[in-house]
Specification:
Strand content: 25-35%
Shape: elongated
Number of helices: 4
Structural class: mainly beta
Strand order of the largest sheet: 9-13-12-10-11
Order of helices and strands: EEHEEHHEEEEEEEHEEEEEEEEE
Helix content: under 10%
Length: about 240
């Protein structure tokens, strides 16, 4: 495809090549016209701040009737703001300060909060509740509702008021007395060994999870099972059964 060399404004000896199918340019005061057919004059542009419209000089504003001009210096030069952004090293989230400087940040985990992909390099950061960690006061099995006392956590007894009052969450690890037990107090738990029917899950004897509502003691709704292997934790207020 044939092309035409065009000299760059204020650039001695520098040109760009325009393809043969490019459109012809226009010159203010010569062949650049307003929508009504009148010539665009430099005075109209200066007087209207770049938004003059028509031969009457009335301002049209917006993007439909206005005109735009190119500041060639901004095209040729990379703004300092972008240079500072490009100078950031490593993975992270770019944050612009009030003074125009750029900083690199990542989302930090806090107490009870865990963050996946904190720097956003592999995708969106994911913030979720981190498991609580407590010492076991007695042997604790995984996937049991536990109660916390002064000496640690143990399986919850839904017939004992003090045990119910100390309800903490569902254990996701097991251990003997003194072991560090991880406990989820919110969010979801998935386990391939479950076979729930869609519906509520309750606290059963010795902290076991069951879909059979209790007849005595306290009724504690642990959560809701939307699928056979998932439990969404909710922990409704315990209800004393008559």
């Amino acid at each position: 495809m044939a092309g035409t060399k065009i000299k760059l404004k204020d650039q001695l000896g520098r040109v760009v090549r325009v393809g043969g199918d490019g459109t012809n340019g226009a010159t203010v005061g010569k062949n650049l016209r307003w929508p009504d057919g009148s010539l665009v004059q430099e005075s109209q542009i200066r007087n209207s701040g770049g938004q003059a419209g028509g031969s009457s000089g009335s301002s049209t504003g917006g993007s439909t009737g206005g005109i735009a001009s190119t500041v060639w210096r901004l095209v040729r030069e990379v703004p300092a703001n972008l240079q500072k952004l490009a100078a950031l090293v490593g993975a992270g989230l770019a944050v612009r300060g009030s003074d125009g400087t750029w900083h690199q940040r990542s989302i930090a985990a806090g107490e009870g909060i865990q963050v996946e992909n904190a720097d956003g390099a592999a995708g969106d950061p994911v913030v979720s509740l981190a498991p609580l960690v407590r010492p076991a006061a007695a042997t604790v099995s995984a996937l049991r509702l536990v109660s916390e006392g002064a000496d640690g956590v143990r399986h919850l007894d839904p017939t004992d008021a003090a045990s119910v009052a100390g309800m903490l969450g569902v254990s996701i690890t097991a251990g003997d007395a003194g072991a560090a037990i991880s406990i989820k107090a919110g969010g979801s738990i998935d386990d391939a060994g479950w076979s729930w029917s869609p519906g509520f899950v309750f606290a059963g004897p010795n902290g076991a999870l069951t879909q059979v509502p209790p007849a005595t003691g306290w009724e504690i709704v642990v959560g809701y099972a939307p699928s056979p292997t998932r439990l969404n934790l909710t922990f409704d207020e315990p209800v004393k059964l008559a």
